[in-house]
Amino acid sequence: MTTSPPPHTAPAPGHASSADQPRTLIVRTAGTNCDRELVHAFELAGASATTLHLHELIEHPQRLADFDIIGFPGGFSYGDDIAAGRIFANRLRHQLYQPLRDAIERGVPIIGICNGFQVLVKLGLLPDPHANAQNATLADNTNGRFVDRWIELNAPEDTVCIWTKNAEHALGDFELPIAHGEGRFVASPDVLSQMQQQKQIALRYRNNPNGSLDDIAGICDSTGLVFGLMPHPERYVDPTQHPCWTRHDAEKLTQITPGQIIFQNAVQYAMQHRPSAAHAEPAATSAN
């Protein structure tokens, strides 16, 4: 007996018209391989999405001001040479750091997933963009192996992270897939204490797969806008993407997924704040 997938995934509430859709920028470079999934996740959540190569942004840094949300996808940027995300982060640091800081000041939500998280940390935008330096890292997993599986997570209710906070759809305990070899979050006791006091821990592992400090799976900056996580929410925006979906009952197959909640939270935030609303010309829908 075969089980047919549900007819459709739960739509984003209050789905905006194309003119009102928040504009999302997905930044890709050599070795990025999760950009299309991230585009799909944002479009499903009610945003438009544009993919631009890093070289295009370096040549035209003013384009960052055209967008309401920015995403750094997963993959193996520059082959993870030197360390995961290091080269990508260095190029951003030397050529686009201030425009990215300006985006945060405008209230633009930014997400970095897996390799994107490694980039944001090594760039210095997480955990504290105002430190003007890298003050944490993502190191090799303690077991010395690449870990690729689904894992249970918890989103603390008191976090300031706008990506995981939603009174209507509480994340609580949920599952997402992970796929990384350098996902162990490491920081000094002072940095960790500051993060805890400022409610910057956005996700924790229920069963720590990599030795990450304080079971950290995802963090945000003190504003809650900049969010980095090792799990992949873009890989669970449809109920049938869960490995056990055929065992789920009909009700669960029509419920909004944890991945959808994360992206919808950011899209709804951007719709309410629209820092780029003053720009008259919309961004192009795609560029490679």
Descriptive account of the structure:
There is one protein chain. This protein has a single domain (23-273), classed as 3-Layer(aba) Sandwich (Rossmann fold), CATH 3.40.50.880. Helix 1 links the parallel strand 1 and strand 2 (48-53). The radius of gyration is 18 Å and the shape is globular. 24% of the residues lie in helices and 20% in strands. The protein contains seven helices and eleven strands. It is an alpha/beta fold and 288 residues long.
Features:
288 residues, alpha/beta, Rossmann fold, 7 helices, 24% helix, disordered C terminus
How are the strands of the biggest sheet laid out side by side?
A: 2-1-3-4-11-10-9-6-7
- CATH class identity: Alpha Beta
What is the CA-based Rg, rounded?
Answer: 18 Å
Tally of structural domains: 1
- Please state the average pLDDT score: 89
Provide the fold topology:
Blueprint: E1 23-28, H1 35-44, E2 48-53, H2 54-59, E3 69-72, H3 86-95, H4 97-106, E4 110-113, H5 115-123, E5 136-139, E6 147-154, E7 173-180, E8 184-187, H6 189-197, E9 201-205, E10 216-220, E11 226-229, H7 258-273
Parallel strand pairs: 1-2, 1-3, 3-4, 4-11
Antiparallel strand pairs: 5-8, 6-7, 6-9, 9-10, 10-11
